Each structure stands twice: as structure tokens, then as C-alpha cells.
Amino acid sequence: MEMNASYTSFVAVGDSFTEGMSDGLPDGSYRGWADLLAARLAAREPGFRYANLAVRGKLIGQIVEEQVGAAAAMRADVVTLVGGLNDALRPKVDMGRVRGHLEEAVERLAPSCRQLVLMRSPGRNGPVMERFRPRMEELFTVVEELAARHGALVVDLYGAPVLGDPRLWDVDRLHLTGEGHHRVAEAVWQTLGLPPAEDWRAELPPGRPSGWAVRRTEDLRFARRHLLPWIGRRLTGRSSGDGRPAKRPDLLPLS
């Protein structure tokens, strides 16, 4: 990895995390860390090109089938791949199959780009995190092994305590806020060897604990608006990304 390197193109591959949920814009669309990173890279390089193939709800097998081939064909300087967490968070999962899909994705993407970037994704502190932590850590072990084998960089978001702070997570408890995405963009920026603008690992100021009644109200609202619909989609085999196109399917100059 070059220090203070120059990059002329960037392709982002993945699911809702890379699509940008829940960093909402006034028009109802999402921005997210990949868009923020692309804008910063474009400011350094005239004619910089960017594609974001990520679609919410995608499993790693779908990412391989629908995004990896297109991303490899673009021959970008930088490709980011984040996937497998949707698989790990399902009630039942074959982690061996997840490993196989990740291996295929990395084997196809690494030779196609100047620098492949993988991630150890963040997780919101709480009981859901504790339940799925063993699977997440198994997934991240695979990520580290593949990175070492193929010369990819790994952004360790999981190892940053601040990104587990519930205040950096949206009300759905699955996606980062705008501030969370801002910190991820800075983390990837620094991992690419570019000069830091801030300490993305810096802890938030101490907050005032919520009372029991407030917490219960928030839990009920979360269950009604987010948890029950999510369970419904799992039971019926549907996904929030069904029929949804990628936000930037072509590698074009960033405008």
C-alpha cells in the first residue's frame, strides 16, 4: 500500500451497509460511507469515477451472483467488498457456504483491481450482538484469512468500541447513523494510506442514561416498526432489496 496514494476509480460491492442505510438525505435517498469516501477521493483526482453496486438485504451468495462479475469487469483502482453479515444474522446459516462464497468473491475481485478492501463490520452493543457474536467473529476470521492470502486491506470497524455505541445507530438498530457512516468513511480513507482528517475511533461524550419507561417505549417502537417486518420477510423468503437496482450501477465520473 502506498502512503498518500492517488486513486482514479472506486467500486463498492455489498449490502445495505454499503448502500448507505440509514444516512438519509432530504430527498429520501441514502448517502453512506461509500459515497462520502468517493467524494473525498474525487476531490484529489480529476476525472475520478465511482460505482456503487450494493443493494440492501443481499446475502453473500447474491452479492457474488449479481455484483462481483460486474465489479471485476470495471477494473477499478479500489474495490470494497462487505458481505456475509446478513447471512450470519439469520436464524439458520451454513457458515461453510458463506466462507465459500466469500472466497469466490475475493478470488475474482483481487486480481481485477489495484487494491481490494475488506472489513470487519461494526455491531451495535446489546443482546442481539451478544447472541450473534460467535458467528460474526467466525465471519471476520474468514475475512482476515482471505485478506492475508490475496493482499487485501482490512478495515477493523468491529474492533473500534465507539462503533458499538447505540448512539451511532439508527432506530432500526441495524444501520449506522450519518455520524457512524462519516466515521467509517474516515476509517477506509486512512486504511488506504491517505492523510487522516480526524480520529474516527474517538469515543462519544458521556450520555445521560435513559429511564426504564423510555427504554421500554423505544423497545416497543423498534419491535413494531422494524423487528416484526424483518421477521415477516424472513418467514416469507422476501428481502428489502427485492427488485431494487443498484444506486450507481456504472463506473462514471462523480458529479
Automatic annotation (TrEMBL):
SUPFAM superfamilies under this entry? Answer: SGNH hydrolase
Domain SGNH hydrolase-type esterase, chain residue ranges per copy: 12-182
Report the superkingdom from the record: Bacteria
**Protein name stated in the entry:** GDSL family lipase
Q: Which organism is it from?
A: Streptomyces venezuelae
